[in-house]
């Protein structure tokens, strides 16, 4: 786990401070202030409004999640619930440090949340499941909820748990294959992987098998905190990797700006799992719409508040995966996007 790395002096980051790293202590304070209206003590809320409270915890951070929280609120509204009118929401954020999640889940359960939302990665969903077998849970994850032990089946989840999976962790081989198609002359690809992410071992096995299949050399860079991420950046340059592959992981999502800045400043073609990275200046991504998943989570929470049982709500899976390319970034890298990639792109940012 990240442990002491939650707060690192900028001076220790050396030349990598230019990529936007800052002490976690400051990030946590900013996060608290930014979400202060959502963090009123539940007892005060109950006295003032007597509204049902949704306990919302995420492995991500509020800074990189504003747009998905908006989608979650949209789903709630579609189900007839509006924050501050007939429901309240208690937000908790792990900021990419998964060791915080069990305590956050326990806290929200102790506060008598009507529904617990464990979202922003597999670790959040697992922590929610371990915290209660009674409070209804709606999760959001990127892996297989059956393999994770969360549900019995996709159609009939069973127990007190339901939610959505984006299947991002299952798509790593496809993304590596697309990267190979994008830069066929690159001999070595650096793979950024978080070993503390629950599906990490499966991700690694899938990527190693895919690399053998397409005859692509890969170099695995493990990072689960800022210190390790800086070291991974340095190792990537030392190994002279010709491209970067970012495995799906909420911690990396919280460091999206730093990762895309590093790739840009070092002229590295990089492949990502969410469109957000490409909008932020990344080169290319392939994956589902994360906002669709969060919207569905909001709808499910609303249905549960109206009396539906999680066991009867099927697990939602993505129906479409989008290939997004940033031509401006490609031009800055001096890279020509192959016609086959452009022809298959669902969105081209110019």
> What's the CATH superfamily of the largest domain, by name?
Response regulator
Write down the overall mean pLDDT: 89
SS class: alpha/beta
The geometry reads as elongated
Helix/strand order: HHEHEHEHEEHEHEHEHHEHEHEHHE
Gyration radius from CA atoms, angstroms: 20 Å
Q: Assign a percent range to the helix content.
A: 40-55%
Structural descriptors:
350 residues; alpha/beta; Rossmann fold; 2 domains; 7-stranded mixed sheet; 5-stranded parallel sheet; 14 helices; 12 strands; 17% strand; elongated; disordered N terminus
Any overview of this molecule?
- This protein has 14 helices and 12 strands.
- With 350 residues, it is α/β, with parallel strands linked by helices.
- It folds into 2 domains: 35-167 and 289-312, Response regulator (Rossmann fold, 3-Layer(aba) Sandwich), CATH 3.40.50.2300; 169-287 and 321-349, Rossmann fold, CATH 3.40.50.
- The chain has a 7-stranded mixed sheet, sandwiched between helices. A 5-stranded parallel sheet has the order 2-1-3-4-5, sandwiched between helices.
List the helices and strands and how they pair.
Layout: H1 24-34, H2 42-49, E1 53-58, H3 66-78, E2 88-93, H4 101-110, E3 115-119, H5 122-131, E4 137-141, E5 161-165, H6 172-182, E6 188-193, H7 200-214, E7 217-222, H8 226-238, E8 243-246, H9 250-254, H10 256-265, E9 270-272, H11 275-279, E10 284-287, H12 290-305, E11 322-326, H13 327-333, H14 339-344, E12 347-349
Helix pairs in contact: 3-12, 4-5, 6-7
């Amino acid at each position: 786990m990240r442990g002491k790395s939650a707060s690192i002096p900028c001076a220790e980051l050396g030349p990598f401070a230019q990529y936007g790293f800052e002490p976690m202590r400051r990030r946590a304070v900013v996060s608290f202030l930014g979400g202060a209206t959502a963090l009123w003590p539940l007892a005060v809320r109950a006295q003032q409004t007597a509204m049902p409270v949704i306990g919302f915890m995420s492995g991500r951070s509020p800074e990189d999640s504003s747009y998905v929280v908006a989608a979650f609120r949209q789903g709630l509204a579609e189900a007839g619930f509006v924050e501050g009118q007939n429901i309240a929401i208690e937000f908790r954020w792990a900021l990419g440090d998964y060791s915080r999640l069990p305590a956050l889940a326990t806290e929200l359960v102790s506060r008598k949340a009507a529904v617990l939302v464990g979202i922003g990665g597999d670790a959040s969903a697992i922590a929610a499941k371990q915290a209660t077998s009674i409070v209804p849970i709606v999760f959001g994850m990127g892996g297989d909820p059956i393999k994770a032990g969360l549900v019995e089946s996709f159609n009939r989840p069973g127990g007190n748990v339901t939610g959505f999976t984006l299947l991002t962790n299952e798509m790593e081989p496809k993304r590596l294959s697309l990267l190979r198609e994008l830069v066929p002359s690159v001999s070595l690809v650096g793979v950024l992987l978080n070993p503390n992410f629950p599906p990490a071992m499966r991700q690694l096995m899938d990527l190693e098998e895919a690399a053998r299949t397409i005859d692509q050399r890969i170099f695995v860079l493990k990072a689960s905190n800022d210190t390790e991420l800086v070291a991974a950046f340095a190792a990537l340059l030392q190994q002279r990797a010709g491209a970067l592959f970012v495995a799906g992981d909420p911690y990396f999502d919280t460091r999206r700006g730093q990762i895309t800045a590093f790739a840009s400043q070092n002229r590295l073609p990089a492949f990502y799992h969410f469109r957000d990275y490409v909008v932020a200046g990344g080169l290319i991504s392939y994956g589902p719409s994360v906002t669709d998943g969060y919207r569905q989570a909001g709808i499910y929470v609303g249905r549960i508040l109206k009396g539906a049982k999680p066991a009867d709500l099927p697990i939602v899976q993505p129906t479409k995966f989008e290939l997004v390319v940033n031509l401006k970034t490609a031009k800055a890298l001096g890279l020509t996007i192959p016609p086959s990639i452009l022809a298959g792109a669902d969105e081209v940012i110019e």
